[in-house]
Fold:
Amino acid sequence: MEIQLWRETLEPYALAVDELILKFEYIIDEYRHVGAYSPIEQVTGRVKTIASIIEKSQKKGISLEHFNEKIEDIAGIRIICQFVEDIYKVVDIIRNRSDMRIKSEKDYIDQAKKSGYRSYHMIVYYDVETLKGKKELQVEIQIRTLAMNFWATIEHSLQYKYNQNMPEHIRERLSSAAEAVIILDREMSVVRDEIMDAQNTFTIKANIVADILTNIQNLYKVASKQEVIKIQDNFFRIYQDGDQDDLEKFSRELDLISQRYRAQSLH
Ligand code: 0O2
Structure:
């Protein structure tokens, strides 16, 4: 296939990857805006390189005319979660979306691969709009924890380095590292509630402070400088004391003051 034709064929996949990254990042934002813990920690994506598509087609005996039907991971999205429980939450989020239709799912967490590889894979159909109209593409979504991702990244580099001939002692090390990842993920799940509580408290506090600062900034436009400086000093004192209840009370009172000024400016 000519290089120009390859480019044309792969362009819609790049669009799908860009759109999906944006959509999954929006989910993270939605959780953060309501001060809730996001099951998604990070999203990345890539379009398979032409060399890698040719290599996979040869390995699987796929003719290059049919590669975009037969190779399911030309567009790939990787979702990283903090905890194993989050992975299944993300799977549910994807299953319930109307812009992705599930083709297949593989749970390599429940059933790890022989190599020790663990991850949840979903192949979804996703539509992109191009000048030639709607195009239905397949996208592979890999969902894994930070620990699983660490293992898979190292193992992938070693596979590349040894090109199918990985020495036995390295394979054994990787196998015991995979066991360690299982234990690490299990241990982290035990403390999950505490970690989530700490993260939620931090996000809630950050949102309250952001609201207060916006209110103070707006008050500078309508209230006397003296009054705003007094409010600001009060805020610094409460913030330094570090009591979240006091901070929330202060934020509510400031909301009322701001509303009063807004009402006055309307009359
Ligand atoms: P790349 O470079 O990441 O794109 P298979 O025939 O089983 O090899 P299949 O049927 O295409 O592969 O799908 P599968 O098994 O679900 O794996 C698809 C992708 O999962 C792989 O893509 C890897 O990204 C990842 N993966 C699967 N097994 C392993 C593993 O043992 N170690 C690591 N590090 N990753 C794995 P590609 O195209 O192989 O590679």
About this structure: Residues 3-167 form a domain with the Beta Polymerase; domain 2 fold (CATH 3.30.460.10). The first helix runs from residue 3 to 33.
